[in-house]
Structure formats: structure tokens, C-alpha cells
Design a protein that fits this description.
By secondary structure, the chain is mainly β. It contains one helix and 26 strands.
């Protein structure tokens, strides 16, 4: 993964009735946890660290706020991270000097604490959440071995449960819930071999089913994991090469182009932007560079509004002096 020096930004969409959240992180300039804030344009990120607290954006009130500082060590602060929102918790996965670690921010008591480790700690996994549970599948262990195991996290119980293995090992894949089932698509079975199949996990029968050519073009080693989101129980993807939004046809197992992205996904092979679902909206978070500097823009579109006249993406928020590179994104409670 290229972006090991990153700014991370936490975005919260919370209303007073049901505490809905939106969690988003971005590199260079915005903060989701503690991260580097020095940037040298001649050679990339500098080695000087500036540890900053996580920042939150409330789109209902259109305001930004800061979360308490994460009490992690410097290794975790500077290392690559992955995030997952589940229930009222934000889980941040990374590495400390002693190995893999997970830090949890609890929205209820507004504090950080350690989260129990998975039965088999990993990185570069596919994941998604639904209500109080989340599933993590595949990834790489501490020795770099590609995994086919999966685990379920219950945020109310605060524990991990081992699930049956997938049919194929994969890392750098993506996960999502659809039709009350969990899916994993794309990824790599090794450093050079990409996967075009998907896998469906039935939570009732506890079985996996392989779906051939569910992600027909795969993702290359230099590309990001598949950029996917589910809105109204329909699966959408942002193509890292063509900058198009595609919709998955469940019946025919094919993808159809529905519109273009509001930002370029091909500049960094899919890295640097977030493509997520939030309620009935598709959310695209990407950076822009202009005469006033670098900004992060939150774009959204409701698929149910259709495409009359190829309507523009609406803008939810603009974060100035925030850099132009989005690191990762998670959505809670939408």
C-alpha cells in the first residue's frame, strides 16, 4: 500500500433521533486519527510527524468538530490503517510495535479504548457492517500469508467469532451486505494473481457460495480494492480505470454504466477517493486542487432521482486546506 503517511478525517452524520454517523478519513491535511501533517512537494511526505486528533464533520449542522486524541503509540499513529464502523463504534485497525492492534472510538461515551483482537489478526481484508455486527474476510496475516478465513464482530458483545472459511484466499478485496447476505468481491490471491469471482455468505446456513465473474475485470496489484457501495439493496461500483459508476445486474451477473464520477478515479488507480453508501445516497469523497489550494469535497447522488439531463452531483461539504487525497471511508448507521 502506497499511502502509509496519511491524514485521516472522521466525518460524523449524527441526528438527535437515531445517532446516525458518517465516518470518513483522508490523507494529507485532514485528520481521522493522529497522522503526519508535514508535506514536502519536492519529494513527497516528509519524515517529520505532527500528531493531530481526529476531526468530525456534522452535515446536519454543517460544522466540524474534533474527537479526543487516540492514546496509541507512535508506530500505530504513522502506520497504514483500515477503519470499520459498526453499531456506535468506529474500529481502527493498524500496527503497533508489538504487532496488529485495534483501537475503538465509542460514540456513546466519546472515548477511545482497545478493541479485542481478531482470532487471527490481519490487514488488507474485505469488510462491511450491518446494524450491530460486522464481518471481516480474507486479508494477510503477520507473515504475509493470504487468508481465506472470516470473522464476525458483535459490537454489543465486544467479541469476535470465527466463521467458516471462504472457498478462495484473497486480500485487497471488498465486502458489503446485500439481500441480508454478506459478499466479498475482487482482490488478489497472491501478489500477482487477481480474482474475478465473488463469494456470498449466507448468515443463516453459514455457507459460502462462489459467484463466477462477479467482478470480471478484477483489480490489479497497483489498484485499490474494488470501490463498491449498496444503495436500496442495489450494488454500485466506481471503475478505477474509466471513472464511471456502474450498477450490478443481479439476475444476469453483469455491470451496466449509469453515470460518470464527479472526480478522477484513474489518477491513482482508485486510491485517493472514497465511494460509499449513506442511506439512499451514493457518497463520493475526493480532492480538488485549485487556485485557492487543496480541498476535500463530499459529493452525493440519489440513484432514485434518475439521470434526467445527467444531473450534477450535489455537494454536501467542502473542507478547505484539507489536502486532496482521501485515505479511507466508513459509514455508520445510515
Amino acid at each position: 500500500m502506497v499511502f502509509r503517511y496519511s491524514f485521516e478525517k472522521l466525518e460524523i452524520n449524527k441526528d438527535s433521533s437515531d445517532s446516525k454517523l458518517e465516518l470518513m478519513s483522508a490523507t494529507q491535511g485532514c485528520v481521522l486519527s493522529q497522522s503526519l501533517c508535514s508535506f514536502d512537494r519536492s519529494c513527497g511526505f516528509s519524515q517529520k510527524n505532527c500528531l493531530m486528533p481526529w476531526e468530525a464533520f456534522d452535515p446536519i449542522r454543517q460544522r466540524w468538530m474534533r474527537l479526543p486524541r487516540m492514546p496509541c503509540d507512535e508506530c500505530f499513529s504513522c502506520a497504514d490503517k483500515e477503519s470499520l464502523a459498526v453499531g456506535t463504534q468506529l474500529l481502527v485497525f493498524g500496527r503497533e510495535l508489538s504487532g496488529f492492534a485495534i483501537w475503538m472510538y465509542n460514540l456513546v461515551n466519546r472515548s477511545w479504548s482497545r478493541c479485542p483482537l481478531m482470532n487471527l489478526p490481519r490487514c488488507l481484508f474485505g469488510s462491511s457492517s450491518q446494524a450491530e455486527i460486522a464481518i471481516v474476510a480474507g486479508g494477510s496475516d503477520k507473515n504475509g500469508q493470504v487468508l481465506k478465513s472470516a470473522e464476525l464482530y458483535n459490537s454489543e458483545l465486544g467479541c469476535w467469532e470465527a466463521l467458516p472459511d471462504m472457498n478462495s484466499p484473497r486480500k485487497m478485496c471488498s465486502g458489503f451486505f446485500m439481500d441480508r447476505k454478506f459478499y466479498v468481491i475482487g482482490g488478489m490471491s497472491s501478489n500477482t494473481d487477481s480474482l474475478t469471482c465473488g463469494e456470498e455468505y449466507n448468515l443463516e446456513t453459514r455457507t459460502w457460495r462462489r459467484i463466477r465473474n462477479m467482478y470480471p475485470h478484477g483489480n490489479r496489484a497497483t489498484q485499490s480494492p474494488p470501490l463498491v457501495a449498496v444503495v436500496n439493496n442495489q450494488l454500485y461500483a466506481a471503475d478505477q480505470s474509466t471513472n464511471q459508476v456502474k450498477k450490478y445486474d443481479k439476475v444476469n451477473n453483469v455491470w451496466n454504466v449509469v453515470r460518470t464520477l464527479p472526480v478522477r478515479a484513474d489518477n491513482y488507480n482508485g486510491w485517493g477517493l472514497a465511494f460509499k453508501a449513506c442511506g439512499d445516497k451514493l457518497l463520493v469523497v475526493g480532492g480538488h486542487r485549485g487556485s485557492e489550494g487543496e480541498v476535500i469535497v463530499l459529493h452525493f447522488w440519489r440513484p432514485e432521482d434518475g439521470l434526467a439531463g445527467e444531473i450534477d452531483w450535489d455537494v454536501l461539504s467542502v473542507k478547505e486546506r484539507a489536502g486532496a487525497f482521501v485515505y479511507n471511508c466508513a459509514v455508520m448507521g445510515c
